[in-house]
Amino acid sequence: MTDDIDQVLIKALMEDSRRSLKALAGISGLSSPSVAERLRRLEERGVLKGYTVEIDPKCFGYQLQAIVRIRPLPGQLQEVERQIQAIPEFTECDKVTGDDCFIARLHVRSMEQLDTLLDGLNTHAETNTAIVKKTPVKRRLPPME
């Protein structure tokens, strides 16, 4: 699937997706054209799906982050999914097995905004919300070995 050099490149890009080909070449011991070719192949195979920017939501006034477990009422699954997709404050959502159908991450500016957003869902679903105090493990790659 991937070799040691691919993994070095992937880890370097995870740390800083804006690294230049020259910088990646220095890290990997390859030439810049070789790095470009490896990245192209990783993209074609779907290993690298994109390059991102990480922002701090607090810089945009989003002071609170919540994890919301959502259990649609009978017959409301598609409507609840549509509503979640339509609310931009939901920044992540997974459809899961178990008692709840969705586990979502939500960024809001205030408790009042949280209440307003969830009130709109509560006509179609039951919700259970936890406020995030700290994120001791940020999104990271699973082991590639």
TrEMBL record:
Key words of the record: DNA-binding, Transcription, Transcription regulation
One matching Pfam family: HTH_AsnC-type
HTH asnC-type domain boundaries: 1-63
Keyword Nucleotide-binding: no
PROSITE patterns named in the record: HTH_ASNC_2
The name this protein goes by in its record: Lrp/AsnC family transcriptional regulator
Organism name: Pseudomonas violetae
